[in-house]
Amino acid sequence: MIHEDFHCEFFFIRHGQSGSNATPGVAVGANFDSPLTALGEKQARRLGRRLRREKVTFDRVYSSTLARAIRTTELMLEEMGEGDRRFEKIEALKEQQIPAWRGKPDGEIFTPETLAYMRAKEPDFVPADGEPLRLVQRRVATWIEDEFIFNRELTEKPVNLRVAIVGHGAATKAFFQHIMNFDAKLITRMGMDNCSISRFMFNRYGWFPVCINDGSHIHEEAEGGIGRVHA
């Protein structure tokens, strides 16, 4: 039983622009562990400045094990005034992996026949030698549920946690489909900008979306507040 005063607010953050993101016309970046571009580093710093300006602090911080997510987290924390803070790198949070597609032109991969098959199978489509989104969804969900949702030692107490999880576009959207149960077709069709924030609240009544793909800080360092939410 989840305690009536258990509240966990999640900030799901996509990494800043990577070299792969900045290479148009390629199905999957040639470098699966592509670093941030100069723009990606600026985005991560803007993210951190916004969080600091709005007096947001995190009780726990995690990133995927890929370089672009780790560097985004480092720069975010630096701008928040926590540059020496350590955080956990979680293998389960890494992006969908499709080795055979790396560096290949879109036109070579996404033939009419392949696109038709992808639309028919949606998250269960197995790309070449890679992971189907359903498997990515499962590994992300398993880690989050083991770490928080089904962690009785944590949830049976009155707790108020704010958690940052810095990860990737497809993996994070697949997890959102798991907790929100929307049409699986939307996983590949919903937007998630680099360094955007998606906030969710979890308590004894389940998951509650607060905002998805908030990237206002990327385009302009706008004023506004992010308060702690009790859904």
What does this structure look like?
The chain has a single domain (6-219), classed as Phosphoglycerate mutase-like (Rossmann fold, 3-Layer(aba) Sandwich), CATH 3.40.50. 35% of the residues lie in helices and 18% in strands. It has eight helices and six strands. Helix 1 (38-53) packs across helix 2 (67-79) and helix 5 (133-149) crosses helix 7. The radius of gyration is 18 Å and the shape is globular. It starts with 5 loop residues before the first strand and ends in a 12-residue tail after the last helix. The model has no long low-confidence stretch (mean pLDDT 93). It has helices at 38-53, 67-79, 106-109, 112-121, 133-149, 152-155, 169-180, 216-219; strands spanning 6-14, 60-64, 88-90, 159-167, 197-203, 206-214. The chain is of the alpha/beta class.
Q: What is the mean predicted local confidence, pLDDT?
A: 93
Query: Given this structure, which CATH class is correct?
Result: Alpha Beta
Spell the H/E element sequence: EHEHEHHHHEHEEH
Tell me roughly what share of residues is in helical segments. 25-40%
Q: What about the largest sheet?
A: 6 strands, mixed
Structural class: alpha/beta
Order of strands across the main sheet: 3-2-4-1-5-6
Number of helices in the DSSP assignment: 8
Give the strand tally: 6
How many domains comprise the coordinates? 1
CATH topology: Rossmann fold
First-last Cα distance: 18 Å
